[in-house]
Amino acid sequence: MKPLDRQHRLRLEANSPFGPWLLRQRGRQGFIGDLAAYAARDRRFPAAGSARQVCSHVLGQAIDEDMRGALDDALTEWRTGLLRSAM
pTM score, two decimals? Predict the structure, then answer.
């Protein structure tokens, strides 16, 4: 199977916003679940936002290294799911 080119990956990301995916992780165990709960409590969180919008918002907050790691892990998991669904 041929790997997806950058443009195709960007289209996938644009059509599958990261914000809703992250909010659906509420109730999950671990740091990703904690990050999702934090996002759900944040009235300014870009709930329909792209990965870039969510990262910009979250990283602009006073978060600790665990939450930064959770954001990285969540992005990786979200992107992996997008790529799997496209193949």
Answer: 0.80
Mean pLDDT of the chain, nearest integer: 85
The pair phi, psi for residue 28, each rounded to 5°, is: -75, 145
Predicted confidence at residue 1, as pLDDT, reads 45
pLDDT of residue 15: 61
CATH of 16-86, one of 2.60.40, 3.60.70, 1.10.150, 1.20.120: 1.10.150
Question: Cβ of 44: how many Cβ atoms within 10 Å?
Answer: 8
- Token pair for 3: 């790997």
